[in-house]
Design a protein that fits this description.
11 helices, TIM Barrel, 15% strand, alpha/beta, eight-stranded parallel beta barrel, single chain, 255 residues
Length: 255
Amino acid sequence: MPNRTLLIAGNWKMNNDVAEAAKLADELAQALPEVPAGVEVLVCPPTIDITTVHDRIQAAPIALGAQNVYWEAKGAFTGESSCDMLKSAGCTYCIIGHSERRDYFHETDEDQNKKAKALVAAGLVPVFCCGESLEVREAGTYVEHVVNQVKAGLEGLEITCPKQVVVAYEPIWAIGTGKTATAEDAQEVCGAIRETLKEMFGEELANGIRVLYGGSAKPGNIAELVAKPDVDGALVGGASLKAADFASMVVKAGE
């Protein structure tokens, strides 16, 4: 297996006002003055909290990301943030394609493709999310569904280094439900994603692209997940809101 750096990424979603974000960022910086070799740490707070969190983690080995971006550089797009805005606030990553954006805000694969291309062009790393509903899972077409999302979302993306993009597999039925895909389930789909990336970007690049698992990932299952050959870390929701739990996941991933 190629030697890929694991990525433990926290998606804070719509949680924490500025004061709460500052407190959590301080706790994370104290809990993670250093991280295990072979592990990278990322937190993605709400947009309103980004600069506050940046100021508190910049001395810690923790990268900063956003939860959304718009593909245009500037203009009359009320409520949106551009790639350059995120960069100026200290972000190096940005989540795109999360099921909550797709479901609640009706974002399409085409939208994700535009976002991915804009982020890479700006020197930011998209964390491209994909995953199936319970209905698709039970129909048995989940691998095809996820593969099609990856193909549509990353089509035409021009990368020369595998660290320019991250893919996160999040089965929708496991997000925030307490249900977790087994490590074998995660490997099945993450492995299929890897094969799709090989078709799209060639074997050398694809073998270096990190594929994460998300969906009720927590301290109790992270070690089993990252032990699988095609699972390179986790996109963490609820557990990322507790500094002790998130730090524990980072440590256990690196053991």
